[in-house]
Amino acid sequence: MSRFVEVFGVEADGVWRAPGRVNLIGEHTDYNDGLVLPIALPNQITITASARTDGVIAVASSGQQDVVEFSLDSLAPDSVKDWAAYPAGAAWVLLQDKYEIGGANLLVESDLPTGAGLSSSAALLCATAVALLGLHSIEVDPAEVARLAQRAENQYVGAPVGLMDQMASMCCTAGHALYFDIRAMSTAQIPFDPPADGLALLVVDVKAPHRHVDGEYAARRKSCEQAAAELGVPALRSIAFEDLDDTLARLTDEVTRRRVRHVVTEIRRVEDAVALMHAGRLRDVGPLFTASHASLRDDFEITVPELDVAVDTALAAGALGARMTGGGFGGCIIALVEASATKTVLDAIDKAFEENGFSAPSSLDATPSAGASRIS
Hints:
- By secondary structure, the chain is an alpha+beta fold.
- It has helices at residues 3-8, 85-96, 120-135, 142-157, 164-171, 215-231, 244-249, 254-278, 286-298, 305-316, 342-356; strands spanning 14-23, 35-36, 38-52, 56-61, 68-71, 103-110, 176-181, 186-191, 199-205, 321-325, 332-338, 362-364, 373-374.
- It is globular and about 60 Å long.
- The model has no long low-confidence stretch (mean pLDDT 95).
- This is Galactokinase.
């Protein structure tokens, strides 16, 4: 008997998936109308589903004991708590936009580590949305599903996230990074194949969990929005890199100056990384990773000791570049390394963590993968 039949007592109608992501560069730029460059990971959320006719959604997870049920008629922000708030939020936003979904049984399974900054929350929202739509053969543009998932996380879950995670989960393609211009709402697929150049992209989970709902993420976003208002621009993306010094001189608060400097220089680093990738100079992207980490550590102040030790150790062990990735305050680093140096770098990080008394880190496969889809 399948796990789905064991839990719900009926056969499934289909299986849908949405991947997590790792951002190559462009951190905390998405809610500033900036540029980002994520890839989708092989790690994903999978939802096995069947339709119901009673207007109830029942959600179970391989990691939870209980089945959570809620009625579509009574869905409202804050009406469903804990992890089930994410599938509830996906259903709620679809109903808000008049999509004619119905009740469903949903079994959630995941090989994405929670708290690692690999966008498990966005993947869960996207996977739920595509499953609920798929049960009723409703076709929606992937970018629109991403926007719906972001609204669900903002308005239902209460996390002030930007649009990058959802776009990566929905719109990435295998073998490419997604160059996403938030202001223009345009995307381009940038070929990204480190092994072809004798390189590897390492993703190391430092086991220091972060949570976007916490106040620090919201505080960074608020600081950026206040700075834009003080400068009289719609978003920090409007500040030209060439005008950065003059712009910073107009700000009276030193912390605000650092926040603005990070965003403007990070957007330039995304542009530079894409240009280098187009030119076939992937090795030269490494120093941009390292500069990004320094900016996130010193100007945006969102790293933690585990992230800094992992980056510093990777660089000392020969990495071409390394940086924290994700929302910060924990999660993962990425390191661009010669393929032959993969074990050397990972072993060095393991040793450094042991010496610092940190929890043992783990590494993930960073093969650029495809966005959300139906499996069966």
